[in-house]
Amino acid sequence: MTPVELSRTVLHAVRRAVDEGELAVAVLPERVVVAPPGPGGCGDYATNVALQLARPAGQPAPALAELLRTRLLRTDGISDVVVTGPGFLNISLDGDADARLVRDILRAGPRYGHSDTLAGQAVDLHAAHDARAVVLMDAVARVLRSQGARPRLTCAGPPEDAWVRILGVPSDIPSDIPAGTGTGTGTDAPLRPVPAPADPTPLGRDAARWALLHPAPHDRPHIGDSQSEQHLAQRETNPLFRVRYAHARTRALLRNAADLGFTPEPGPLTPEGDGPLTPEPGPLTPEGDGPLTPDPDPQGLLPLLADHPRVLAATAAHRAPDRLARHLVAVADALAPLLPSVLPLGDEKPSAAHRARLALAEAAGTVLAGGLSLLGIDAPEHL
To answer: In whole angstroms, what is the distance from residue 102 CA to residue 346 CA?
Structure first.
């Protein structure tokens, strides 16, 4: 069950409770937000829907949460529901939920997380005549389209030729508002991020777009200053490099696994009875991989992959591509410890656990590639 499916399941439980007279709410929420549980929570996902509905329903949130808990426990795919704090619902999925998530990502491909939530909605976006504003608008439009919306773009002036050729912004953005008027054409406020302090085009398309999009719009991008060269550096201090390198490693693992005669297959990540396997601390290069040792800390990658649809929805809602960029960095960093344990070592034969780890790595690479594409950045298979 994906987060989107779980959100619909919880919302269906709310609606059934209303239809059967157990819950009196005049206006139901259009969607229910589910996310990995926070401090004090448990299970795979948590939702605060009971707290949202408590006041309009005239019921204490804990009682309302218990009502929904009873209904959710009858649902296939849900193994347990625990009420914590003031009324949070903490939901545990069946044991094969992780494999289903990986399978769903591989089935959807780079479109994983795309939805029809905003289907039919026309969204007007207007940018100042500034390179960062136009790149931001282009990225926001890409994410809005991934959620089914129909963005309409305008700019205070025609995009510069270099922005089109190098930064990859559309060349046909209408400029029906005179530059400097400071007004937009639609429901959205004009996009006016803090301008780049220098021309971003010398960085090239991918590094320039990342440099403009990774910081929040109200933050000043590091372009033309002492930190500007970091965007081109092939080292771990460069977050864009970490994201693209992680994706390229997943593609290399798929090629290497094919040479060894095995393919990805979602399933348990460790042999039965073993804990999660990670290499001992050391460089994340083939020469530096250490022996596999049990890691008592649960794998943090799966919750991040499960959260990807929510991140895309939030990015669209807040017009904030920096949320997606930071999410991709988190996915890449969580993926890194898994990579050395994907392929068999020495004379070891490929096992079901190796195939499952390969599938998880491929799923993570798929999310990275899809996210970079929405930011207008290439995800090379070789780096």
So the answer is: 27
| CA-wise closest residue to 180 among 205, 157, 153, 151 | 157
State residue 273's pLDDT score: 41
Residue 332 CA: distances (Å) to CA of 245, 304, 305: 8, 10, 11
What's the one-letter identity of residue 46? A
> Which residue in the block uniquely carries the two structure tokens 């320039």?
208
- The 3-class secondary structure across the chain, one letter per residue, is CCHHHHHHHHHHHHHHHHHCCCCCCCCCCCCCCCECCCCCCCCCEEECHHHHHHHHHCCCHHHHHHHHHHHHCCCCCEEEEEEECCCEEEEEECCCHHHHHHHHHHHHHHHCCCCCCCCCCEEEEEECCCHHHHHHHHHHHHHHHHCCCEEEEEECCCCCHHHHHCCCCCCCCCCCCCCCCCCCCCCCCCECCCCCCCCCHHHCHHHHHHHHHCCCCCCCCCCCCCCHHHHHCCCCCCHHHHHHHHHHHHHHHHHHHHHHCCCCCCCCCCCCCCCCEEECCCCCCHHHCCCEEECCCCCCHHHHHHCHHHHHHHHHHHCCHHHHHHHHHHHHHHHCCCHHHCCCCCCCCCCHHHHHHHHHHHHHHHHHHHHHHHCCCCCCCCC
As a whole number of angstroms, the distance between CA 223 and CA 202 comes to 10
Q: Among residues 302, 310, 308, 278, which one has the least CA distance to residue 370?
A: 308
Any idea what the Cα angle at residue 176 is, between residues 173 and 178, rounded to 5°? Answer: 115
- Compute the average pLDDT of residues 55-67: 90
At 329-346, the pLDDT tens digits run 999 999 999 999 999 988
Instruction: Round to whole Å and give the CA distance between 97 and 135.
Output: 38
184-201 pLDDT, tens digit each: 444 566 888 999 999 999
Predicted TM-score (pTM) of the model is: 0.74
